[in-house]
Write a structure and sequence with these properties.
This protein is an alpha/beta fold. It is built from 20 helices and 13 strands. The radius of gyration is 29 Å and the shape is globular. It binds arginine.
Amino acid sequence: MKKLIDRIGDVLAEGFEQAGYDRAYGKVTISNRPDLCEYQCNGAMAGAKIYRKAPIMIAGDVVEKIRDQECFEEVTAVNPGFINLKLDREYVAEYLRQMALSDKMGLEESGDPKKIVIDYGGPNVAKPLHVGHLRSAIIGESIKRIARKMGHEVLGDIHLGDWGYQMGLIITELKARKPELPYFQEDYEGEYPEEASFTISELEEIYPTASLKAKEDEAYREEALHATYLLQNGHRGYTAVWNHIMHVSVTDLKKNYANLNVEFDLWKGESDAQADIPDMIERLKAEGYAHMDEGALVIDVQEETDTKEVPPCMIQKSDGASLYGTTDLATMVQRMRDYYPDQIIYVVDKRQELHFVQVFRSAKKTGIVPSETELTFLGFGTMNGKDGKPFKTREGGVMRLENLIAEIEEEMLKKIMENRTVEEQEAKQTAKTVGLAAIKYGDLSNQASKDYVFDVDRFTSFEGNTGPYILYTIVRIKSILNKYQAEGGVPEEAVIQAASGDSEKALMLEVLKYNEVMETAYAELAPHKICAYVYDLANAFNRFYHETKILAEEDTEKKQGYIALLLLTRRVLESCIDVLGFEAPERM
Ligand code: ARG
């Protein structure tokens, strides 16, 4: 369905043209004076210079031409030259009825679907997930869902950090603890055990222990580096250990991400890119893209228009080892070969921006990624504690994701038990659902690139701009609809009536923005715009609810109209929270 704002825009454009002006001036925006009008057009002001006429006269001419259009209830030219618009109630109701009948609620899918790879999550295998990985998962998941809703074909790739020094550290520590295991016998030629000799909790203890030892003990560090080198060069025993680590970790990661309602299509990692590195480096050397600089192999990426120095992208160290950038470039080789995407979006901490500038430029310059494929860096800010510093535990350590989630759930449970009288079992389940909404909404309601303060009290509140408030509103609608059905009513979607009151109309005007908001959120990769919208929508609904006797309405047609509006409001809210990555419980 054509967006309502565009439909009105067409009417205005027509009006300008009929009055003898350029139709391009007929641009309509949402009113910034909601007390005066609903939409407005400022084109007369822009045209005044060209036509050497007072803007109010131009506005007046246009108003003459459009005042009788069925879409308007009121059209006025006001000083110095605004055109103020109020929409006709029946016109609005008809738009909503069409929305209710369309299966995507008026959303127009892209006629030319793109294939998009989203690189998000990015946890490092065998290291515990911490809050830094939370943002990537939450934002990336939302971007993926928004793009899908717009009809694009999206592949979410977790891009595991599974090939680095941490693997060498773990191997070294395991070897120190159990040197008798066959992985560490150089002359061993038999089969290795199928099962790992450690559990995830052991692994989570082994990594920090090894990491600390390596910092204090130079010989240990050397050994870990050497183990990393051997692993990366195909050492048989270490590869077997690596497979165990991967298996144990990935099983655990899958559980963690499932709890977050985050789902990846691809579980690839840095290790999957390694096979493409040798050929890639050969080609870059042969074609003159890469050259030696102080012993390292680099690609120059400085551009003339740069105001700051952009250092070259290093792809091989003097000892032959590859680097973070090498892996990212080789991953692009693999992605282009396997999926040939139109766009790759990276959802990564914004402190890695320079790295991606270097990698993107290298990829384009060398033809690893063709010019028509768009590379997008979506950098996010830091999640801080109330003290304004990166979020820590009460003891000052790095907060583990599981603990953070548990803390929110506990707080939610407390609030739910205080408020209501549901069984503890149900309350626990609800606390999980609402807690996740609290975390995700708290994150997504901020523009991704900004730092934000993780505030458990505020995020779990049922009032204000929070996830629980949005869910509470949805649950309220569900409960009215349930009561209506319990009374024998049969809710119907497409019988929305022209608004009889102001709060009802205000609610309708919010509901009908759905397609526009979703489109903008996709175009700008901005889930926070969805949050801002659901908050406005929830407020509009609650105002309507407080001012209207819905179930006690005696006029049947009117009552059915209310119910139909509730159904559509609920559908829009649910579709929005779905792209934010959470859902509403039945009761709370
Ligand atoms: N594993 C990395 C980290 O924890 C994030 C990976 C981001 N994606 C990428 N293609 N480099 O910092």
